[in-house]
Please model this.
Amino acid sequence: MTVRIQVLGSGNAFSDGGQANAAIHVTAPGVSLLLDCGGSALPAIKKHVDPGGIDAVAVSHLHGDHFGGISFLVLEQHFAGRTRPLVVGGPPSLERRLRAAEQALYPDFFGRTKLGFPYSTAVLGPSATELGGAMVSALPVRHVALSEPHGLRVSVAGKLIAYSGDARWSAELAAVAKDSDLFICDASSFEREDPAHISYRELMRHRDEMGAKRIFLTHLGAETLAHVAELELEHAADGTKIEL
Ligand SMILES: [Zn+2]
Model:
């Protein structure tokens, strides 16, 4: 059975290279799951897929370029006449942060209008949770602590997709990637050291420790984009499709 992955948003928080914030669509028969839904994800989603077909969102961490688009997706889906449920899973503070974002953005709508579809949240952790037809677990990684950073491991149709979210190198990141068929990894920087993100060079140094069958770069920042011709790993642009 083929698992299809489309990187709808491959950019970092600054949308370097004009690329949209994080949004990665995973599909297989009976599965439609979005990994992250950043602030500019909704236009990136609508360019490539029907948002009404997305059953669930798994959020890696609580930074705006990874979860800031969820309130827009919910608003859009309400007015599009959605009736099927939408579930959003993520770190422990996800629900509180979503409610705060809703009240900051559209206090006239959220909490005052009954949504036309069931909308719920779930906390993801080390034991796998069913989300959008896939089994998803979340393991802590090293990034900015307040964002409750996690890497995701998604089991779909016998394949394991690992996703770093945003993360610096650590043994915890290797545990996220371990034995995956595809590891989608943060490539914010090329060689510049960053306390919150692994660089491409560092990833290449630790490549064997990751234990992933295939590594795919996303979240490309300006420095990585400037060195794109030197990358020995596959990398995403907005709209890139991968099949497993
Ligand atoms: Zn982040």
Notes: The mean pLDDT is 97. The first strand starts at residue 4 and ends at 9.
